[in-house]
Every structure is written in structure tokens, then in C-alpha cells.
Amino acid sequence: MATEMISRICKSCGQEIQVPAELSAFSCVYCGAKLSASYYAVSTQPSDESDLAYVKEHLLDCVRDYPNAFKQFNRKLYESAYRNYKEDVSPVFEAMDRYICAQPTQRQALLSGFVEEFIAQWEDIHRNPPKAKTKAARERLAFSDKLTLAWFTVPAIRGLGLSVSEEFPALLRDRFNEKYPDNRFELGTYEEIQSGFRKHGFCFVTTAVCEAEGKPDDCPELTAFRAFRDGWLSQTEQGSALICEYYEIAPAIVAAMRYGDDEAKVCAELRRDWLNPCYKALQAEDNAACREIYTDMIHSLRDRYGLYN
């Protein structure tokens, strides 16, 4: 008895492959990607127009249905929040992937079309949101939604291992930053972000600024700040509490600067408004003034990104 064969589109490379119908898992003969029958269960016809309708209906929901997601961007909550989010939104991007893979000759046009659909919906929802009546409130809403996009949506798409997982976020980033140059974001992965929380993998704020300016790790400023932290600051009760708070929140701040903001612009602001005055206070041996300036910087960044433990 002949084995029943069915046609599938590889979600990684977009090639059409023939597989035995009874298999629950199989590999693409072209690229070697590991595939499962469950991925195709939602639609046995990859080119079904229902996939297109589903993506259009739910694309921006992946951001707007999670208005408080950015508040879970901290060491304690991010891992579980991200995994729950990724599971919730995966059907949207799997449907996008199926639809695009079914029409390989139109791939770039379809990808660009989905990007423009996202931008159009974003523009529409943020033009006159019902709960944001003032310009400042609208700008804050758009900024918070951008953080959700950068910290959750993009890493989730990239973590799904689909053929669109790199192309769509990159195209969206480029188009979004072109459209909204004052509300930029950059591409990150869950692994990059989580490693910063777990292993202190991110440079802390002063180091991040100095790195952005091309200064070495042993430059005079960093040496002075570390001596201040490990010396006078650590020997006071208030200073010890500040150090503990800093180590808890600093990785999230640097991640926010790197993926959810215009890092170069933020670094310039930090240099002008806080780090230069703080360094001058150290040179004048005014440790208390340095502490107050640095504390104000951290709390200002915490408030900017909505980072509360």
C-alpha cells in the first residue's frame, strides 16, 4: 500500500516539500529545519486567505492588548512574562509565515505589505486614543507601546524560528524608525535581554555611555566612579541601599536604552545633564553631591522607562 504524501511549505526556507501524511515531525530536505505537523494544523491550505485576514485583524493587538507588558520588564518578571506573551502571539506570526511561504514569488511585496499594515494601524490607534486626551498622554502611550514592541514583540517573533522571524522585524524597525525618528527602537532577542538580567551581562549605565563614546573600560572616569562606588558610597547606609537598588535596575535601564530608545541621543543627554556634573563633583571631592546627582539620574531613567521592581 502506497504511503500517502502531503505537500508542505518549509517555514524556514519557503521551499515546498513532500512528507508522509502520518508523520508528526519531519525535517526539510532543503535546509534541514525541524518541522512539526502541529504547526500546519491550523490551516491545511497554506495559501488560505483566512490567514491574511487573521493577521490583519490581530497584528497590532500583539502590542495594544498588552498595555502593561513594559511594567514587567525587570529581573523578577521578564522571563515568565515573555514566555506567556510569546505563546499568546505566536498564532499571528505563524499565520503570516504560512501566507508568505505559500507565495514565494511575492515574498518581499507581502512582507512590505504587512509592515505597512502595522504602521497604518499604529498611526490610526495613536492618532486619537480614547484614554489619552492630551498630546503628552498620547506621546507617553506611543512610547510605552514602543517599549512593548521592542522588549516583547520583536524578541517573540525572532524566537519563533519562522522564515519571517528576521526579515519582518528588520523591515518593521527600518520603516518605524523612518516614520517616527523621535520614537526609535532597535532589534534584540530574548536571549540577549534575559542574559543581561541573569548574568549582569549588560554594561551598567556609566560604562554604557563611555563605551558609546569609544572610551576604554579603564578610562579615568570609569576608574573614578568605581572607586567612589566601592569606597565612600559602600561605607554609608544610604550608599549601600543605593548600590543594591542600582544593581537590580541598571541592567534593565541599559537594555531599555539599547533596544527601546535612541541610544546615542540618550547617552548624550546623560553625559550633559548628569555624568559631567557628577564627575566634576568627584574631582572636587564632593562625594555627597556626586551621590545625589547619580541617584537623580537613575531615578529619572527609571521613570522614563517605567521600570519599577
Number of helices: 12
Amount of helix = 55-70%
Give the C-alpha Rg: 23 Å
Q: Average pLDDT, to the nearest integer?
A: 87
Q: Got a strand count?
A: 4
Distance separating the two termini: 63 Å
Strand arrangement across the biggest beta sheet: 1-2
Domain module tally: 3
What is the beta-strand fraction?
5-15%
Query: Uncertain regions: pLDDT < 50 for 5+ in a row?
Result: 42-46
Computed structural class:
mainly alpha
Overall 3D form: elongated
Largest sheet: 2 strands, antiparallel
Q: Spell the H/E element sequence.
A: EEEEHHHHHHHHHHHH
Compile the SSE list and pairings:
Layout: E1 5-9, E2 16-20, E3 25-27, E4 34-36, H1 49-58, H2 61-64, H3 78-101, H4 107-127, H5 135-159, H6 167-179, H7 190-199, H8 205-212, H9 220-230, H10 237-259, H11 263-283, H12 287-305
Antiparallel strand pairs: 1-2, 3-4
Notable traits:
two-stranded antiparallel sheet, 309 residues, mainly alpha, 3 domains, elongated, 12 helices
Provide a brief overview of the structure.
The chain is built from twelve helices and four strands.
In words, what does this structure look like?
The chain has 309 residues and is mainly alpha-helical. It has three domains: 1-41, no CATH class; 42-193, no CATH class; 200-305, no CATH class. It is 61% helix and 5% strand. The chain is built from twelve helices and four strands; from the N terminus they run ββββαααααααααααα. It has helices at residues 49-58, 61-64, 78-101, 107-127, 135-159, 167-179, 190-199, 205-212, 220-230, 237-259, 263-283, 287-305; strands spanning 5-9, 16-20, 25-27, 34-36. The chain has a two-stranded antiparallel sheet with strand order 1-2. Strands 3-4 form a two-stranded antiparallel ribbon. A hairpin with a 6-residue loop joins strand 1 and strand 2. Helix 4 crosses helix 6 (167-179) and helix 8 crosses helix 11. The longest helix has 25 residues, at 135-159. It is elongated, with a radius of gyration of 23 Å. Residues 42-46 have low confidence and may be disordered.
